[in-house]
TrEMBL record:
Cross-referenced Pfam families: Sigma70_r2, Sigma70_r4_2
RNA polymerase sigma factor 70 region 4 type domain location: 126-175
An individual GO BP term: DNA-templated transcription initiation
GO terms assigned for molecular function: DNA binding; sigma factor activity
Alphabetic keyword roster: Sigma factor, Transcription, Transcription regulation
Protein name: RNA polymerase, sigma-24 subunit, ECF subfamily
Amino acid sequence: MADYSILSDNELIDLLKESDHVAFTEIYRRYAYLLLVHAYKKLQYEEQAKDVIQDLFTSLWLKRDIVIADGNLAGYLYISMRNKILNLLARQKVESKYIHSLNNYIVTNSNSSTDHLVREKELKAYIHKEIQALPRKMRVVFELSRNEQLNNREIALRLDTTENNVSKQVNRALRILKAKLGVIIFIYLLIRP
C-alpha cells in the first residue's frame, strides 16, 4: 500500500474523485485540526466548531467527484468552512429573532390576559356587590333565577308565592341592576382587549 502522506494535494484530489477512502483520510488528517482551530476562533464553541468541520468533510466526501476544480484543496476547504460558519450564524440569528419575537408575544399577551382577568374579576365583584344591595326578597328571587337557573314556577313553589310576584321581582331587579351597571358594563366593553 502506498504512503499517502507523501502525496501532493492534487494527487489526493484525483484519488478522492475515484472514491479512495485512504486519500480522504489523509486529507482529513492534514486539514481537520487547522480548520477546527479556525472554526473555534470564529464560533467560540467547541461543539459547534466540531459540527461545522464534520459537516464540511461529509460534504467533501459526498461531492468528491465535482469539487475542487482548480486544485487548491486548502483554499477550497477554508472557503467551504467559512461559508458553513456564515450559514450557521445566519441561521442562529433567525432563530434568535424568532425566539425574541415569541418571548415578546408571550409577555405581551400574558400581560394583557392578566389585565383582562383582573378587570373581569373586579367587574364580577362589583356586580355581586350590586346584587347584594337589592332588597332581601328581590335578591333571593333574583339569585334563584340566575344562579340556580330555576324558572318562575319553581321559585314560586320554593318561596310560597305566586309566579306573577316572582316575575315582577326578577324584572325589577334587572331594571335596578341595568341602571346601576349599564355605564360600568359599557366602559368595561370599551376597554376590553
